[in-house]
Amino acid sequence: MKLGIIGKPQSGKTTIFNAASGQQEAVGDFSKAVHRAIIKVPDHRVDVLTEIAKPRKFTYAEIEFLDVTGLSGKGKDSTAFEPNPEFDLMEAFIVVIDAFSEDADPERDLQDLIDEMILSDQVMIENNIKKRSRKIQLSGDKSGVREIELLQKCLNHLETEKPLLELELEDEEEKLLRGYSFLSRRPLLILINIAEDNLAERDAIEKKFAHLVAPGRREVVVVCGKIQMELASLEPDEQKQFLDELGIDTPAVDKVIQKSYSLLGLISFLTLGDPEVRAWTIKRGTNAQKAAGAIHTDMERGFIRAEVATFEDYSVLKTLPALKAAGKSRLEGKEYVVQDGDVILFRFNV
Asked: pLDDT tens digits, residue range 254-289?
C-alpha cells in the first residue's frame, strides 16, 4: 500500500514524513526530491502472538509513505501543471494542511489543493477525448465511443467544481477508468498540522473539521508534526514518558496509519507458526481463497480449507489443541469472508 504525502509548500509535509519514518530528511529546502520509506504498521496482536508462539521472527504489515512534490497549492490559479509521475502509484493521499502559522487558513488551503487536482484531471480528460475522437475519425473504429462518453461524464462532473471521488460510477464504468490516474479520485487523509501550543485543543480542533469526513473517501486526523518528529528520535521508553507528559495515549503517527487502513478499506489477518508470526494486509470483504493468495499464489491455487480462530480466543487459549477442545477453532471454505484479526492456518495442495 502506497500513500503520497502532499500539501502546500511549508505545510509540514517532510516533517510529517520524518515523524512517520524516523528519517531525518531536510525540511523547508524546496527540493523536488522524492522521499520514501517503508513503515511497520503497529499491531499489538503481532506482539501478543509472538509472546505466545516464540517464533524465530515476527513481521508486521507494512505501508509505504512517499513525500513528493507536484502540486503548487495555487488552486484554480495554477497555470503550468506537471503532476509527479509518482502519483500514479499512490492509492491515497495524505494531505498535510498548515494549521500552525499565524495566517493559516486550513479550509482554503485544502480547497486550493482539491481545485488543483480537479484542474489536472480536466486537462487529462480533455486531451484524451480529443485523442480518442481523432482516432475514431481516422480509423472508423467506434469501439472507443463508450469510453469517450464516460470521459465526458467525468468532465461534466469536474466542471461543477467537484472531485471525481464524489462521482458515483457503475462497476463497468470503474473498469473502463482503471487505466487513468485521476488525482481527484484518490481518497484523502486530511492531516491538520497544529502548533505545539494547541495540543490541548486537538480534540476540539478535530471536531471542528469533522464535517470533512466521508467514510471511504475522506478522513481527518489532527497532529503536531513538530512534536511527532521529536518523538521519532527517542527510544521507546523515552517516547512513552514524553507522551505521558503531554497527556497523549497513542502517537499521532499510529492514528495516521490506522485511519489510512480505514480509508482504503483494509484489514489484517494473522498467521503463526514455528518460523514466523505475521500480519497480512487485505481488502475488507476478501474471501479465504483470495486471502491465501496474499501469502503465496500457490496457496490460492491449491486452496483446500482454512482453519480459523479469532485473535481474542487465541490470546486466551494460546494453542491450537486448546482452541479445538473449546470449540473455538473452525474450518472454513474458500468463500468464507476473512475478518480483521482472524488467525488462520491455510490447508492447500499443489
From this structure: 888 888 888 999 999 999 988 999 999 999 999 999
Q: Are 191 and 258 in contact (CB under 8 A)?
A: no
Identity (one letter) of the amino acid at 161?
E
pLDDT digits (tens, 9 = 90+) for 62-101: 989 988 876 776 766 665 556 677 788 889 999 999 999 9
User: What DSSP designation does 23 have?
Assistant: -
Domains of the chain and any CATH numbers: 2-43+59-105+186-263 (3.40.50.300), 107-184 (1.10.150.300), 285-348 (3.10.20.30)
User: Virtual CA dihedral for 87, 93, 94, 95, nearest 10 degrees?
Assistant: 90
pTM here is 0.86
DSSP 283-346: ETT-BHHHHHHHH-HHHHHTEEEEEEEEHHHHHHH-SHHHHHHTT--EEE-TTPBP-TTEEEEE
